[in-house]
Amino acid sequence: MSFGEIKDFEVASPPTDGISDLAFSPQADLLAASSWDSQIRIYEVQPSGNTVPKAAYSHEGPVLSVAWSKDGTKVVSGGTDKAVRMYDINTNQTTQVAEHAEAVKCVKFLDQGQQILATGSWDKTIKYWDTRSPQPIGTVQLPERCYTMDTAGNLLIAGTADRHIVIFDLNNPTSIFKQTLSPLKWQTRAVSCFIDGKGYAIGSIEGRVGIQYLDAQDQAKSFSFKCHRDESKNMYSINAISFHPVYGTFSTAGGDGTINFWDKDSKQKLKPFPNMNGTIPCTAFSRTGHIFAYAVSYDWTKGYKFAQQNTTHRIFLHAVKDEDIKPRAPKKR
Fold first, then answer.
1. b or e along 240-255 (b: 16 or more beta carbons within 10 Å of the residue's beta carbon)?
2. 7, 150, 267, 313: which one has the fewest Cβ atoms less than 10 Å from its Cβ?
């Protein structure tokens, strides 16, 4: 299916290199995108679905992650320049608020305070910051490089190299609550917390997703399933997992160029998207869940040799229909 047949809106003035992360403001229809072109771009999404470029700021190297503060006034980003930078929407000022010894792969504001930030790096640490202070307020040693990280409520999960999963209870953020190996046999690519903080979804490079519950009495409900594989049995990386903020259903996006909506509780696929003819590195739901953003851009799963100069980098906005994302009753056996 060509793009012309898809009724999704294309974002104006997209990044000029690989798109690494997408994040919607929790307070308004503003979308931030980070890119390998060393830029963060912020777009205003109008009620019509059209977008207006609103602001941009720079890092000194490719940017790998982006997140919003809870009040929607700040955007933070981390990149290969080993810095975390914060942009103030109201003043248009950018400041450096954190740093690591290696590239910063993940940035997240925590629910524990407006100013509190967690950053995960290839230097094998997670650091916690109060953005008003230049020194970290806590540092945790990880078993390996941080590849992916998410948080919800008191839960913070990090996925590292060598398939380690490190779980934190943010009531005691500087000590590891639990460390385990991924239930999936191959390298972790994405991790995303359930909206109720009771577990997480994890995706690997070989087209498999694991649904993991934390509470001992719920662990029997944990399961894994195959997806993002083609009829020739080729397996593709699960690049992004995004949970719907209202219904708790979720999306997966892959290196095969497809997106699916899923219901973990009834174990059903809710909606398949057509193939986008390009890999999908990142996705995000808006604060109400009515808009689903996804990038079509090189995902680096095949290394730099496949990073073609003429690759287009595009961001699309999909209007989410309730019937495509609401949970469904389990199928009768």
1. bbbbbebbbbbbbbbb
2. 7
- From the list 291, 283, 287, 280, the residue with the least C-alpha distance to 318 is 291
**Token pair in block for residue 21:** 């992360």
- Which residues, listed in sequence order, are joined to residue 186 by a DSSP beta bridge? none
Q: In degrees to the nearest 10, what's the CA dihedral of 137, 142, 147, 150?
A: -50
Place of tokens 């975390």: 84
The domains of the chain, with CATH numbers, are: 3-325 (2.130.10.10)
* Residue 13 to residue 4: CA distance in whole angstroms: 18
Q: What is the pLDDT along the chain (333 residues), one digit of tens a residue?
A: 233 445 899 999 999 999 999 999 999 999 999 999 999 999 999 998 899 999 999 999 999 999 999 999 999 999 999 999 999 999 999 999 999 999 999 999 998 878 999 999 999 999 999 999 989 999 999 999 999 999 999 999 999 999 999 999 999 999 999 999 999 999 999 999 999 999 999 999 999 999 999 998 898 899 999 998 888 888 989 999 999 999 999 999 998 999 999 999 999 999 999 998 888 999 999 999 999 999 997 655 555 555 565 678 999 999 999 999 999 988 766
And the tokens for 211? 């649904």
Per residue in 99-119, is it b (16+ CB within 10 Å) or e — as a string? bbeebbbbbbbbbbeebbbbb
- Taking the mean position of all CA atoms in its chain, how far away is CA 144? 20
Contact partners, residue 92, CB within 8 Å, separation at least 6: 55
Say what the alpha-carbon torsion angle 32, 33, 39, 43 is, to the nearest 10 degrees.
-50
CB 187 within 8 A of CB 203: no
CA distance 307 to 325: 33
What distance in Å separates the CA atoms of residue 268 and residue 259, rounded to the nearest whole number?
A: 14
Which residues, including other chains, have CB under 8 Å from residue 106's CB and lie 6 or more apart? 64, 65, 78, 118, 119, 120, 121, 146, 148, 149, 158
> Do the Cβ atoms of 258 and 272 come closer than 8 Å?
yes
